[in-house]
Design brief:
alpha+beta, 408 residues, Molybdopterin biosynthesis moea protein, domain 2, 8 helices, Molybdenum Cofactor Biosythetic Enzyme, Chain A, 29 strands
Length: 408
């Protein structure tokens, strides 16, 4: 344990850059490859393990694109307001006849055009066509929406509710999807309890928050019991969940006497990094134990969330064969100064105000320091990412607010 004691004396003099740490963890994660076939109706939020193709064309028949009369274009040649083509109103298509149709109606057999209702005059059983129609005019083809055998989605696409409607309309009944990646979430800390805290005790929130983030990102969370700050207990907790795709611990990742998790991971396997150049939450660590990646998140709530978003989210998605889309963002005018340390990537929480008459929203700093103040995340609308090369932003500058809780 010499390295651990040296680190506790020295602190984090060397910190891995965010991009390097993220890549190191990414390389340790393997796409699990487990798949299942599920009905389309139950596939929302699942990630495709095979491409989808349309079984049939949509709508599958020629249809009227306008309210009006279905006609044979040849019967309307030369028609005009001065010299209209007079056709018989009929129930079925025949020469010199017109059949009333509505938008979306199937085109009657024998018809090849639709005259808009605005271009006809009705007199009893006669229909005067006031403008000639070309073949195919105001007619939607059978494959106007989707062609038969058309490729609809590629591998890795996460299915949305609108996708399910398209698949069902196209005749697809089942899809092959990846099983959700499994993440074991182990909260640690001898001071933690689940409810009714006594003086000196704290309610466990990090494990709950991370577990629900895992589920919002498309994974399955195993939310474990609290583990005390004991090397043997931590070792048993980690090794007991190595069948998961990723193991995550919360708390005990810094360099204090009770911060044992990185040392336990190093003893069990390989420590990839410990200490990352980001705020809040530089005491984050990751390693590999028996080919299972282990991510050690800090115990301060804000630091825990920031690191979960930056490291766990891409790791989980890679394990489940999912893409890692960027979060939605909003351009806003900063109402107060945001500070950052050179060489450190900072995630500054802000609240958005879009109630003004200006085209651009305002971003109000919620709290620019303090990684233990959970309300600075819960009451914020997102964060501004300040790059390592920037020392901060002044009030009045335009910033990009990343809405990290809105999963695209």
């Amino acid at each position: 344990m010499t390295d651990a004691h040296d680190r506790r004396r020295a602190g984090f003099k060397q910190r891995t850059r965010v991009t390097e740490a993220r890549e190191a963890l990414r390389e340790a994660v393997t796409t699990h490859g487990r798949t299942a076939t599920v009905p389309v109706a139950r596939a929302a939020g699942r990630t495709l393990a095979a491409p989808t193709r349309a079984v049939r064309a949509v709508p599958g028949y020629e249809r009227a694109a306008m309210d009006g009369y279905a006609v044979r274009a040849a019967d309307t040649v030369g028609a005009s307001e001065r010299d209209p083509a007079v056709l018989r109103a009929a129930e079925e298509m025949e020469p010199n006849a017109a059949v009333r149709v509505h938008t979306g109606s199937e085109l009657p057999d024998g018809a090849d055009a639709v005259v808009m209702i605005e271009d006809v005059a009705e007199y009893g059983d006669d229909v005067e066509v006031l403008d000639s129609a070309a073949v195919g005019e105001n007619v939607g083809p059978p494959d106007e929406d989707v062609a038969a055998d058309q490729r609809l989605h590629d591998v890795g696409h996460r299915l949305r509710p609108s996708d399910l409607g398209l698949l069902k309309a196209s005749g697809v009944r089942e899809v092959d999807v990846y099983e959700p990646p499994t993440v074991a979430v182990v909260p640690t800390g001898e001071e933690l309890v689940q409810d009714d805290p006594a003086p000196g005790e704290m309610i466990e929130t990090n494990g709950l928050t991370v577990s629900r983030l895992v589920e919002s990102w498309g994974g399955t969370a195993r939310y474990r019991e609290i583990v005390t700050d004991d090397a043997d207990a931590l070792r048993d907790a980690i090794t007991g969940d190595l069948d998961a795709d990723v193991v995550v611990t919360t708390g005990g990742s810094s360099v204090g006497e009770r911060d044992l998790t990185p040392d336990v991971v190093a003893d069990l396997g390989e420590l990839l990094f410990h200490g990352v150049a980001l705020k809040p939450g530089h005491p984050v660590a990751a390693g590999v134990v028996d080919e299972t990646p282990v991510l050690c998140l800090p115990g301060y709530p804000v630091a825990c969330i920031v690191n979960a978003v930056q490291f766990l989210r891409p790791a989980l998605k890679h394990a489940g064969g999912m893409p890692v889309p960027a979060f939605p963002s909003v351009e806003a005018t900063l109402t107060g100064k945001l500070r950052s340390e050179p060489g450190v990537r900072t995630y500054a929480r802000v609240r958005l105000d879009e109630s003004g008459e200006e085209d651009r929203a305002h971003a109000e700093p919620v709290h620019t320091s303090g990684s233990g103040v959970l309300s600075t995340v819960a009451l914020a609308d997102g964060w501004v990412v300040i790059p390592e090369s920037v020392e901060g932003y002044a009030a009045g500058e335009t910033v990009t607010v990343e809405q990290w809780e809105v999963e695209p």
